Amino acid sequence: MSPTANSAVRDRLRIAIQKSGRLSEPARALLASSGLSWRESRDKLFCYGESLPVDLLLVRDDDIPGLIADGVCDLGIVGRNVLVEQAGERAEAGKPEVFREWRSLGFGACKLSLAVPDDWTWEGPSQLAGKRIATTYPNLLRGWLREQGVQAEAVVLNGSVEIAPRLGQADVICDLVSSGATLAANQLKPVLDILQSEAVLAGPAQPFGDVRAELADLLLRRMDGVLRIRDSKLLMFQAPRDAVDQLMLLLPDAEPPTMCAIDGADTLSLQALCHGAMTWQRLEDLKRAGARGLMVLPVERMLA
Ligand code: ATP
Ligand code: ZN
């Protein structure tokens, strides 16, 4: 694919997602909730968009930024860790910025952390001076070391980073962590987070110059709608007018409610979109503060 392919005129949008792995199911679910449907090719590498001219390419996550850079794909769903690492690699090689993060998507959360042997007493980044740090993310690590003004060596490994100190390949590691159990099993402890990561929608640094701009816009608006209501519920209840201010204090995560008077003017019926979890405990607190007939309803779709 030619390096100018990104500027080539196309009338369908192509999104790269992970073929199989931690991000593949949630990425598909998000796109399906945004109204996309597909017909899958026999080799399961390409999905032809049926409801909209938006196709999917199923690939390894590490290939996604490069596919956008080469113009093979227009958008991609990938971990911020991968995107920032590869952006750093391009910058280091003097290449221009061609892709960037468009949206964070709220799944695939993990941290790129520095972990040291259990028996170290951690005193801060300066302790890393002259040490060997095993990682799969050398650009992210070197960028961070530069910011800290610390000189250390990045030992680049493609897998099993956490075992490197035990093998004598490195003194400490810089790796993705979600639970910490793997670190503990290797007698390591996390001491510092270098990057908070999650899945992101990656897109070109420059806007599209053809019909893909409208398609991307439509998709973004739908995705924003899905993301906004992901944990949201519609809360309905009745309350005496003079209890409403107190009740709204218990709902700091609610949008301004719709209210209408019933029973003359002393009782109000309210409905509010709440963005946090609506637990039994919260409902009981609301009831104690005067709410009656509390009802929690799922929200399926929203268009702002
Ligand atoms: P591929 O075959 O596509 O290269 P992979 O083995 O590189 O797959 P996964 O392990 O599925 O990829 O991880 C994909 C992304 O999931 C990571 O880049 C990261 O953003 C995110 N992630 C979330 N939690 C973790 C974790 N505990 N360990 C590794 N990655 C995680
Ligand atoms: Zn990968």
Automatic annotation (TrEMBL):
It is found in: Cytoplasm. Pathway: Amino-acid biosynthesis; L-histidine biosynthesis; L-histidine from 5-phospho-alpha-D-ribose 1-diphosphate: step 1/9. It holds the Pfam family HisG_C. It catalyses: 1-(5-phospho-beta-D-ribosyl)-ATP + diphosphate = 5-phospho-alpha-D-ribose 1-diphosphate + ATP. Its EC number is 2.4.2.17. It comes from the Bacteria. Its main location: cytoplasm. Gene3D superfamilies: 3.30.70.120, Periplasmic binding protein-like II. The keyword Glycosyltransferase applies. Residues 60-209 form the ATP phosphoribosyltransferase catalytic domain. GO terms for cellular component: cytoplasm. Residues 231-300 form the Histidine biosynthesis HisG C-terminal domain. The keyword Amino-acid biosynthesis applies. Keywords: Amino-acid biosynthesis, ATP-binding, Cytoplasm, Glycosyltransferase, Histidine biosynthesis, Magnesium, Metal-binding, Nucleotide-binding, Transferase. InterPro entries: ATP-PRT_HisG_long, ATP_PRibTrfase_cat, ATP_PRibTrfase_CS, ATP_PRibTrfase_HisG, HisG_C, N-reg_PII-like_a/b, N-reg_PII/ATP_PRibTrfase_C. Feedback inhibited by histidine. Catalyzes the condensation of ATP and 5-phosphoribose 1-diphosphate to form N'-(5'-phosphoribosyl)-ATP (PR-ATP). Has a crucial role in the pathway because the rate of histidine biosynthesis seems to be controlled primarily by regulation of HisG enzymatic activity. Belongs to the ATP phosphoribosyltransferase family. Long subfamily. This is ATP phosphoribosyltransferase. It comes from Thermomonas carbonis. The lineage of its organism: Bacteria, Pseudomonadati, Pseudomonadota, Gammaproteobacteria, Lysobacterales. The gene is hisG.
